[in-house]
Amino acid sequence: MQFPAEPFRIKVVEPIKITTQEEREKLIKDAGYNIFSIPAESIYIDLLTDSGTAAMSDNQWAGLMLGDESYAGSKNYYHFENTVREIFGFKNIIPTHQGRVAENLLFSNILKKGDVVPSNIHFDTTRANIEYHGATALDCVIDEGLDPSNPHPFKGNMDIEKLEAAIQKYGKERIPVIMITITNNSGGGQPVSMANIRQVSDVAHKYGIPFFFDACRFAENCYFIKEREREFRQKSVLEIAQELFSYGDGCTMSAKKDGLVNIGGFLAMNDDEWAQRITNMLILIEGFKTYGGLAGRDLEAIARGLKEVLDENYLRFRINQTRYLGEMLDEQGIPIVKPVGGHAVYIDAKRFVPHIPPEQFPGQAIVVELYRRAGIRAVEIGSLMMAKKDPTTGENIPPKLELVRLAIPRRVYTNMHMQYVAEALGEIYRDREKLRGFEIEYEPEFLRHFTARLRPVGNE
Ligand code: F0G
Hints:
This protein is of the alpha/beta class. It contains 17 helices and 16 strands. It has a 5-stranded mixed beta sheet, with helices on both faces. A 3-stranded antiparallel beta sheet has the order 9-14-11. A two-stranded parallel ribbon has the order 1-10. It starts with 20 loop residues before the first helix and ends with a strand. The structure holds ligand F0G.
């Protein structure tokens, strides 16, 4: 591994409050052992998400001062549009205030009840937006992508046979779009290869089905292509991105990830008729077509962020910092999903605390302990977040994987912070037999992980 030295220096600092273990014990207890209910101010290192949490550069902050807040035709919009077009190549570019609105606009306009949308793995908001329209979100990732220890270099790839089988089964008339998530967040931030994208594009176009990217982490995906696909070793990440998007017909994008901004997104596509309809709806729910729910200054920050994210010194640091954390955990014997993805390290909770059964939330036991001992916020992606209710018995069916995600904000934490996280997890791992499971005290009907209250097993 290359040591991931930071390709930036620090000009402004945000002090972080240091709490004591005693204070944290009270906070987490009062929060019903739910990490979402802890005030962010009482967290030392926040690895809840890499979305909207990036540090902007001096160049982006300077851009904010150049915000043109005209209702129509802001100059920042044209800068944003030109930048997106240069990288992504699509003809129509529609700004939105974040990724899920782009999804909502797309699906509201193209889906009808009974339709099917295949992808490698749909992210939750994408799935929810598809299901909301009575359609099915179908995951077709390769089998290797579902095995936490399989070392396949492109575990985000779509299984072409599964995709073909879906088209045969449902018929192309019921598949208005094929999507692919780069990198595949729900599968561990794993990349998709250019070879696979070419194949998916060929299949889609053979049947006349439009092919869209969920492009949130496109730059990280393109960096993996450069690193792992021989053909692209000499190409710039920008050239790789341009080729990759040339195989598609459009994309949804949350700029809160690889846009290096705290808010923003867009929808882009070649089809003029779809774009026209969607723009009309944008005006109804988000705002005029040259701002889409954003301020002019936000569009400027995105335009600048999209250029900065393609800087290969930045990407080398970014990918290697995540890998560095993963390797420090691996060296201590802590079970993680391998290979390490682009934006997060995922701990395999089933192997970390095998004595805690899924119904007692093994991932949550690690999340709570990480906060209690070290003030670090991670998130459980297992039985608490992902269990599905059996429609007949009403019982919870646990998901296949019990994971804890450590998502790394962009340009925010130093490698010393990563060492602190690794050391804290090492201590917890050595004491893992003492960890106890949790049971539910209160849960809402939907999306229970956000607001559920828990208690340690055995505490009435
Ligand atoms: N698609 C992917 C792959 C995502 O990871 C996300 C958000 C979205 C779409 C939605 O974008 O939040 O701007 O509306 N992921 C965040 C996460 C929330 O923590 O992984 P949004």
